[in-house]
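Hello Y.,

Per our agreement to keep a running log of every chain we model this quarter, I'm adding this entry. I've kept the format consistent with earlier entries: sequence first, then predicted structure.
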Amino acid sequence: MTKSFKLLVACAFGGFALVLQGCSKYDNGPLVSPFTKEYRLCREWQLDELNGQAYPSNTYWDFEEDGEVDMITENNGTFSSQTRYWYWNNDKRGVIIDNMGEIDISKLTRNQLWFDIGGNEYKCSAN
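Predicted structure for the entry above:
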């Protein structure tokens, strides 16, 4: 290979890497996804961690495409449930949940959801 061809390939690869880096809206990924944000979000999530510690109860958030989110908590055999409504914020980096406020998403894959509410960091797994 000639030196100019190697340089062209290196520049093309570098440019492609920069374009891909700009595709991710979330700090922790994914870099690129074939699935829409709504597809990745709309499922049942188990809250696993709060600020790096195990979440203290069995809590699930079930985001639905119609804008409902069911929040279900089981604590010592007692269940509580509430339904609220969600929608994307302007830049789709987070969602706004009625009577709760905005959650800032830092990672949204088909299996992981990481977000921040009021300085508290949550990590969830798809159920």
